[in-house]
Amino acid sequence: VVAETPVPLPEPVATSHIKISSRDRVIYPEAGLTKGQLADYYAAVAPIALRWLGNRPISLVRCPQGRAKQCFFQKHDAGSFGDDVHHVDVREKDGSTEPYLYIDSLDGMLACVQMGTIEFHGWGSLVADIEKPDRLVFDLDPDEGLDFEAVKKAAADLKDHLADMGLTSWPLLSGGKGVHVVVPLVPRVEWPEVRSFAERFARALAQAEPDRFTANLKKASRTGKIFIDYLRNQRGATAVLPYVARAREGAPVAAPVTWTELRTIDSAKLYSIRDAATLIERAQSRALQGWGEAAQALPDV
Ligand code: ATP
Ligand code: MN
Ligand code: MN
């Protein structure tokens, strides 16, 4: 029996000067969960979430009237979030520059929640070095008929293929239907190279097992298969970040798990915003130490 070594606790929940209005507004009608409860969830997990959410361009899914009403995806800073939500100027394809959002604090997170944000999605690069991704994400999207078993098996296969190339990866339950396979990178090469690697990797898998996988974006080619969405790895694309609440039924959250755990998990919606304490405890557990971390670069292929 190996003795458990204590893992350092995250910083205690900091207080915030952000005032959440309409705390009693129900934003998850099927679960009866309110804006105040969402804010409390984010305040509780901020110490573990900011490690992923902080200091990278983000897009927000805002649902001011709750998840069952109209939601919209917001990429740019309209200047309405206050001083705790920052912006970074990003050059667009047409040569213009747009202010993208980023946050680096609990106050920033809550300022977004106050404005009706439920979900936070992140670029694969940090504000400090926007052109050089610090991670790859393979977003596994099962076709309607496929169960979570198929998704799990696909994720584990991706892990093995990545490991064959010397790359360590981790599974993230999306809080929806799929699993994201996250591959940390030292930010060294730029987007085109990373995207090219991701695309070639996805296409090679689809070619090797065309009955299980497709790398083709077209819905029609996905029947009965898992779409390996490598397009999360192009400049400007985003993916949901760890501990983010989803604007979906039951208030599920995106949650890091281990490869071993994934084998016995039967849903991508295992955790919800009711599980802040569990998620914090898990983040401190030995099993999840080092999740999403590896000093590694893409192989030359
Ligand atoms: P699921 O497991 O149910 O597929 P998901 O988060 O992977 O959940 P996807 O629909 O596969 O959802 O989307 C993958 C990512 O693409 C999202 O996490 C998000 O960052 C991005 N995305 C989704 N919808 C939009 C949109 N309307 N505009 C911009 N980006 C989007
Ligand atoms: Mn997906
Ligand atoms: Mn997708």
Q: Please, what is the average pLDDT?
A: 95
Helicity range: 25-40%
Stretches where pLDDT is under 50 for at least 5 consecutive residues are none
- Described by its quaternary structure, the protein is single chain
Shape: globular
Q: Separation of termini?
A: 42 Å
Lateral strand order in the biggest sheet? 11-12-8-10-9-14
Helix-strand layout with pairing:
Elements (H helix, E strand, L loop, with lengths): L25 E3 L4 E2 H19 L4 E5 L9 E3 L11 E6 L5 E6 L3 H9 L2 E6 L12 E8 L5 H17 L5 E4 L5 E6 L6 H18 L4 E2 L11 E4 L9 E2 L14 E2 L2 H4 L13 H9 L17
The protein binds adenosine-5'-triphosphate and manganese (II) ion (MN) (2 copies).
